[in-house]
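Schema walkthrough. Field components (list of strings):
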Amino acid sequence: MRINGRVWKYGDDINTDVIFPGKYTFSVTDADRMVNHALEDLDERFRYEMRPGDIIVAGDNWGCGSSREQAVKCLKAIGVGAIIAKSFSRIYFRNAINVGLPVIICPQIVEYVEKGDFLEIDFVNGMIYFEEKKWAFKSLPTFLQSIIDDGGMLQYLKKVNKE
Amino acid sequence: MGKTFVEKILGKWVGRTIHAGEYVEIFPHFCMSDDNVSDVINIFKMTGAQRIAYKERIVIVFDHAVPPPTEVHASKQDRVRKFVETNNLPHFYDLNSRGGICHQVMCQEGFILPGIIIVGSDSHTCTGGALGAFAAGIGRTDAAAIWATGKTWFLVPDTIRIDLKGNFQQGVYAKDLIIRIIGDLGASGAIYKAVEFHGTNELSISERMTICNMGIEMGAKTTICKPDDKVIQYISNRAKRDDWEVIWADTDAEYSAIYSYDLSEIRPGLACPHTVDNYATVSSMVGVAIDKAYIGTCTNSRIEDLRVCAQVLEGKKIKVRTIVQPASWDVYKNAMHEGLLDIFLDAGCVVAMPGCGPCMGIHGGILASGEVCISTSNRNFAGRMGSRDSYIYLASPATVAWSAVHGEIRDPMEVIK
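Field assembly_structure (string):
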């Protein structure tokens, strides 16, 4: 699987409250409405200007704080193609796999690219391409990639249980 | 190059040599859920699975809202009870004298054993590392997937090693050590890492549980103390499985960082509002007025903790409202037999039934706006115990009890000598 998109660049320790504000945790639970609050308290322009397939590039500890799954679901629903970060909070990383949003740990690329750069990601071979440069990342093993390909853990299990 | 604890234990159960940074699929030996099991059941049903893969590996403990404080909680628990009965799940700890706080119950009922894999849909599942298990918190979807398939996945974490030496001075406890460590490393200092504690043999099982319990407050995936004779003695007569084994890191394992602490240099400490890494020594905060004291939670309400509190409170009178909430009914019973409950009641404290309620502001002791609470619990985020405008100081049982006597923060080294 390959995707491409423009970079939206953010810093370290971006917490789930600015990705999806806690005040909506119990009131906004369907994906259609979640997209209206994606990165609401981090980047006011993001949800209006991003295009499906765009890629978030961030520093260390993306998704720290609460375990709320909406912080992943709102970005998947709005069409984010992947998140590349130096590191992720553990619960965010797990939630992302379970929800089916590709997450990539690749510290080397983070300082190199800027907002608006156009990246291509090859998930099968674990490569990110930008202009003439390329970076390798550790691709997910097949059993995890198939969860993402199926659209998340629940869809994956539904499929497995049907077979 | 040798291997860390997590590389060895995960490698053993995966059946091959593994290294930090790899992804592994694994079949956990026990998967625990607290009251949030009602969500796990809903997600499990959505998967379309026909049956639960390994019933005997599922443990359910009601502790967050027991007995149910609202009709909503009551109906959720009722649905869980019916599901448990219909599916004949063997390890269900309802409101019952075998029950209590889930992490305490998991240890005292023999589910946590050296060398096995424990997961739980509660972030403080890492408490189980005190007995040498790999114990990690997971999400509700993760738990439902384990119910359906029996397995889950892990990214094998890098490991931080923390070496302990020396002995605590009088009036200093494991809680003082771990909040000092969290203060030093920061709330994200161990994100996605395992933390191995070396040199814990002088510490009791209870003290190790306090330390491992709070690993998550610096972001750790799992925290582990080396299993020794004390652990083997603790689990004998309790063990729910017989395939446990003492596993520990090789002496030449590779660590992402190594820290060292001399226990004799640790002083009574506080995590000040509103983050767990906002460290201060108690001696620097003496005199801060408090409205309430809370002795409870999976961090610090075992019999050893209650004995320390009783030592401080015996013959004294408290100046602020003080709730003592034992970790389990087993602890409650022992405290009763030892006369500790008499000491608490004579001092003016109230004794609550075991559970988690006040710690996350569900029920049984909510803070009002402006109130200041000193607590033996593990989180002091704004609004955690009630109003967003209340203040929580985390401290050892001795510090909490001695502060309750004075109505202000006081140093327990004044009284425990």
